[in-house]
Amino acid sequence: MSESAPAEGTPVTATSITPASVVIVSHERRPSPPVAWAIQRLGQVLRDAGVRVTDDEREPGLRIVVPAPAGHEMPAESFALHRPDGVPGPVFITGADDRGVGYGILELADRAAYAADPVATLAATEPLSESPATPVRSILRVFVSVEEDTRWFHDRAFWSDYLTDLATNRVNRFQLGFGMQYNYGHHPATDNYFCFPYPFLLDVPGYDVHAGGVFPAERERNLDTLRFISDEAKRRGVHFQLGLWNHAYDHGPGSEPTHPIIGLTPETHADYSAAALGRLLRECPAIDGITCRVHYEGGVPEPGHEFWRTVLAGAANAGRRIEIDMHAKGVDEELLAVARQTGQPVVLGAKHWAEHQGLPYQQTTIRDKEKATADPGTGLMAITAHQRRFTRYGYGDFLREDRDFDLLFRIWPGTQRVLLWGDPVLAAGYGRLGTIGGALGIELCEPLFFKGRKGTGSTSGRDPYLDPELQLDGQEWRKYRYTYRLWGRLLYNPDADPESWRRFLRAEYGAAADAVEKALGSASRILPLMTVVHALGASNNGYWPEMYTDMPIVAGPHSEYFAGDTDGPATFTGVSPFDPSIFYRIDDFADDAVAGRRDGRYGPDEVAGWFEKLAGDAESSLAMARETAADTGDPEFRRLDVDVTVQAGLGRFFAGKFRAGLGYALFERTGDRAHLAAALTAYRAAREAWVGIIAATDGVYRDDLAFGHLLTEHGHWKDRLPAIDADLASMQERRDSSDAPARQSIPSIPRGERPAIRHEPPEPFGRGDEITLTVSAELDGEIVLHYRHLNQGEDYQMAPMTASLTRTGTDHTATIPGSYTDSAYPLSYYFTVHAASGDAWLVPGLDRSLANQPYHVLRQKNP
């Protein structure tokens, strides 16, 4: 594994004989552009540190030897660093391919950049060999506001630094998205710059089409910038994906676009788009792929197969490999056939945890609200709203073993947009679980995504801070460099040496680095957990946990606001989790508690405890960071301090809210005022936590952080307090008016530790095989097997397991019949363990990290 840079004053054998210069030796006379760029980057880092760098092998100095790529000898994108034992150099870099060689060189550059003595650090390089666990590690950045995004779009210095950071941290795919300002059919358009991107980029011979107010010089500048961005990504070995998320040139009634599209008709729409796409791919030869939203929100009413057949011909005739990434929502077999006809590689981009960032695993089951309907549907959204509804927010039925397309998960920006995120534990979990069923990996919608969307852009710019000392001077992305680092490196290798991110933390926070890592790690688990357990809205437009718009426990303000995207009743206790197989709805848990039973799912009491633990850990570590930081007034530290404080406060708030919701639900079922009193106590604690959040953010963040115009898309934490107070007042009023005696007591269920369970998943199965699963456990009760194809359009089957005595104890067995395994799908399964006392547990369930997969996946052999 790699070593950290030696501390100043520490004796290091290599240091005394380290030469004063570095010689970079390439075995390729003309290395590929990514390798040449990586060598250039290493040289620049060393020169910036005052080191003399040369490629003259006659010169003395530490040799960095870059051989030709090893090809088939290593997995794609792999690299290795090694040097002769006991000798402080030379350092040899081996890579499977150009990207792998580049990663090896960039690893040395990164170490040098954060070392007190760069040459000594490189000379002491220990053997290291890494291969990617996740084939695709992607970042998506989007242009949605002409006021807030034009500056960074044309800022070439920004792109140089930003793309360098992504490549250094092994992000191998970058998507620049256009046309995500609006969802066609939902919102009238105003700020439509790049919304239908072609007229903003080029003139298409044979078509007199242009965007109003955009003159040729501006259009040519836009195209030149796009060409520069894609070229620079390619030069760094990063796949460049162009997002064409909107193909509507007219957003319909109520739209008053700032740049109306002139010269198109319904009859010429598809042909023009195909011709424009073809020309765009010729003008920008570094574009490696296109991403299209092919359901109605992309501007084409369903079914739109013939439109896409015409448009995608523009990619088919590009004369090179162009990846066609279709946003998975609503995709059916006919659309897949259209994409296949291009002869280009096809990828489906599926949402991970709806339009939010949840825990690393894929939800066990989707909400009832996302399931297919019997209604075949007609009109604008005929497919996505009805027969293919279950493809909206997950992998749907796309993970067939015999598929001839790939699947990529996309983490949307609903959960956390402003606050700093950085948890190595969850990041490693994404790296281990982002390839479920053979999926390619994950694309992250980056921080500040959608800032200024739907015409809410501000002339004051993209900076989220009001406090002048914390403002980022047009370099907002730098606040989140730790996020990008964890994302790329831990998707690449979930078992990466922690030194690869700790050297960055030491540079930023000095002696406080260890405490910062722990504080931010615990804080960063709170909002993904909240997303999973409280599915207030699948759409990012209607649910923003980071700046939670209060869903009342007692029906009141905003209750009906959420009714369209959650199951009824529209109250806090009636909200379904995003994974209803793993977590209880509060009302369902209360029903079971009154009946004296549990079914194994995690209840609101356990979830509240998790929030409290995470918040407490974040707070204690932050206190340690404040004690050890060299300067707590440093802007970098203050930003971190505020964001950890807010996330810990959110953990306290959600813990109190869950306890209050449970108390209220139990009161409603039993009439016992003690439950209502407990609910009020918990709710007051939640309110106190929210007041703390306001104190931490007022005057720090802008008063209106706008990501859209809806109630749940903009504002400040202080705006949310009146609704919390109104709900709390309604609960107090209910207590004051209730003097009836309790109707019912709640039976006591002894809650103990889960019994010891031993289960070894079997080897991959053959299609049509019977699969017998065995669980070893000593238990007064029963175990139930839950199994399903890896297809979110289906429900789980249940089979009670049969117990039998063996020499070593008791085995419980159940068989999945061959008639069920005779399908194109892998299998997903888990167990519920039911004790005679009424207690129950899930197996495998979630561990303390919350970063594991609470079910098993069984693949087919030789599909």
Short structural summary:
The protein contains 24 helices and 24 strands.
Descriptive notes:
This protein has 863 residues and is of the alpha/beta class. Helix content is 34%, strand content 14%. It is built from 24 helices and 24 strands. An eight-stranded parallel barrel has the order 7-8-10-12-13-14-15-16, surrounded by four helices. The chain has a six-stranded mixed sheet with strand order 2-1-3-5-4-6. Strands 18, 19, 22, 23 and 24 form a five-stranded antiparallel sheet that branches. Strand 4 and strand 5 (91-95) form a beta hairpin. The radius of gyration is 28 Å and the shape is globular.
- Strand content of the residues, in percent? 5-15%
Q: Rough shape?
A: globular
Number of helices: 24
Strand order of the largest sheet: 7-8-10-12-13-14-15-16
Query: What structural category do the secondary elements indicate?
Result: alpha/beta
Number of strands: 24
Q: How large, in whole angstroms, is the Cα Rg?
A: 28 Å
For this structure, the quaternary state is single chain
- Low-pLDDT sequence parts: 1-17
List the helices and strands and how they pair.
Elements: H1 13-17, E1 21-26, H2 33-48, E2 52-54, E3 62-66, E4 79-82, E5 91-95, H3 98-113, H4 118-123, E6 128-130, E7 136-143, H5 146-153, H6 156-168, E8 173-178, H7 198-201, E9 210-211, H8 216-235, E10 239-244, E11 261-262, H9 269-283, E12 289-292, H10 305-311, H11 313-316, E13 323-327, H12 333-340, E14 346-351, H13 383-387, E15 406-411, H14 424-433, E16 441-445, H15 481-492, H16 499-509, H17 513-523, H18 526-533, H19 586-595, H20 604-628, H21 635-670, H22 673-697, H23 721-737, E17 771-776, E18 781-789, E19 797-800, E20 802-806, E21 809-816, H24 818-821, E22 827-835, E23 840-843, E24 856-858
Parallel strand pairs: 1-2, 1-3, 3-5, 7-8, 7-16, 8-10, 10-12, 12-13, 13-14, 14-15, 15-16
Antiparallel strand pairs: 4-5, 4-6, 9-11, 17-21, 18-19, 18-22, 20-21, 22-23, 22-24
